[in-house]
Amino acid sequence: MLLYFVALALAGATSQSCSLARVDHCVFMAELIVRKDFQRELRRFLGRGKESWTVPDDDKFDQVMLTLSASSAAPVTFDDGIISLGGCYPHICTQRAQVFFSPSGEIKAVALLYHECGTEGCSGDEDFTLRILVRQRLPQVEEHARQWAQSEFKRAADMYPDFGPYKLAKTVVQIMRD
What we know:
Order of helices and strands: HHHEEHEEEEEHE
Low-confidence stretches: 1-13
Number of helices: 5
Shape: globular
Mean pLDDT: 85
């Protein structure tokens, strides 16, 4: 089913008005990540270089794009106008990412929810890290990211009651520099 939605997004058969300037018109993240304007904005936001977030010593942009690539959730608009849209790492949907946009489509934060052990070598009972990537401190957006992580834990516990409990080991707010 997910592949069907991705195929629709790639074929342009979903919402015709989805764009970086109209994130609230997107059906899900897979529709947005194929757009060049989104990719440029994400590259600008993250800056150049490598990190070891979800994959050891890998390009920042590639890690975030991969973690956003499987998605089916609609955008969420908060009372302050911030819009969030996210996805998960294919076949390892416990690793998730959420992008927080201004109403005009500027990326304000990217939140990554993942195990420190990366995509390989995890035993399955590790606690999570919430990494909130920002260009400047934005307490309200950071709080949206924390709430998103808690809602993901609740969703996972409801879907997979035999696993868990899912716990947050730490929250890191990382200021992105060029």
